Amino acid sequence: MSMPRKTLRRAVVAALAAVVALVPAPALAEIPPDHAEDHNTAFTNSDGDLWASCESDDGALYAANGDGTGFDLGHSFDPKTEDIVVNRIVGTPYLTPSRTGLTGRVVTRGGNQAGTPGTSVGRVWSDIRHYNRKPTGMLCVDRTLYLAVQDLRRDFSAAPAATILRSTDHGRTWHWDDSEPMFGVRDLSDPPSNPKAAFTTIFFLDYGRDSVNAPDPGVVYAYGLDDNWAGRSQLHLARIPKNSIQDRSTWQWSNGPGTWTAPGDLQGRVPVINDDSLPPGHISQGSVVYDKPLNRYLYSSWNEEFWVFYEAPTPWGPWTRLMTKNFLTKCFDRGRARWNAGYHGGYATTIPSKYISSDGRTMWVQSNVFFTDDQCPSPEPKNLGSYSFALRKLWLTTPDNLVRDPGFEGQRQFNFFGLPAPLGPVEAPWTTEGPDVKGIDVGTALPRQGTKNAWIHPANQQTRAWNAITQDVPVRQHTRYVLTGYVQTSANLTEGYFGVRAGQNVISETKFGPLGPYTRLSVTFDSGANDKVKLFTGYWAPGQDSWLRLDDTAIAPA
């Protein structure tokens, strides 16, 4: 029987849409380490690590933590039932203070480690004396949550078994095939035998709220590591029919650029990343997220002292290293801690798609830090506030724009007693000069485009001080660039300047007076011997009420 014409047309359109969405986009610019904040800056009242997450159809972020009480700090931790906890998180880190902008509650605790479907959050397949449950990845699709849970040896040296759980009630109850693990084998030996295992650390590709941005709505993707959760050199990829995620026989693995094994053929796979560079162990449990505005895929990985991030035009690659940030070791020696509340690495790096800015250039990395007394003296507070659901900013740049957060879409807004205000502070990566008031407009009609813009509006109307909005931008030496930006001012402003400096030495600038609607300003400059320039937009106040707005800045090769 032939397919009805309307059905055929819909099928063709859907197939074409999937192909278009996977057309490679321009590569991102390799980003310097200072494009990631040195420490977590958005905190929550929670306890635990890992925090595999996804945004479901109700707009909440669901996250599973290990080894902690989650968003319930009111009772003592029970390691037998809280080696895994599922939480529901609402709000956004783009509000400040973050502890009131991001809140959560526990949906369910792990329960019996030898539990059964419907009564617990997975089970430990191996010997409970030597293994815990650990959440490694979460997927939200079709109003259903899927959670990958592995057996991880208590000394973190092996992950022999893993299974994917399913919840149709937003995490309250979980179901799985209880006859055997989906991947790997049980380790029931005593002492444990550390059996070889394939694809037992699993995390899903994050396509946004309930997977709304998936180019092929009938398929989901899962990445996996062999043998252990961290310190690997290879990352593998599986393609799975959305309706059979818990049926391993339907899974296909990448065996080349855009090609796949026969269903169920785990042994035929080929890694999509093979990074054996020194120091070893760059491939670890993290996340892969689709950045829709930039049409790129980002893999966040780590080996605790290093963060290593990769990017690709498609789920299968080709993957290239985007950033390496070296946090050095926790301690100089056993008598002195190196990490502190203002500078530390972390593990289990994830980038929730829910918190990617509207322009795709600002995102929040979740990672965890924990000190034990046998490692080195514990800084204060002992866990740096980061053994929790805690976030820090990461900024992406592109070859055609080296400015971080160029449209201010990654800036935060004030949150007073749970009520977001239509303004916020000027924060990193932007800085300011001068004594008078600067800020961010949020959700008003004032931005040129998007939802935010920066402004200068001195509270002291008699001031004649210099005030500016600035940013340090890495550049190549002896290269010509064009700086552009859009500026709007009050009618009495006459001494405005837009340009770049090296230190206090102006490289190039343009003077401007009153600008009614947003006006594009442009400056061409040569970086000379400088590997960094300071972008500035500011004015000398006229001694009466005055203001300036700035939006959509860019520095690009000329």
Automatic annotation (TrEMBL):
Keywords: Signal. InterPro entries: DUF4185. Residues 131-325 form the DUF4185 domain. Coiled coil: none annotated. It holds the Pfam family DUF4185. Residues 1-29 form the signal peptide. This is DUF4185 domain-containing protein. It comes from Saccharothrix tamanrassetensis.
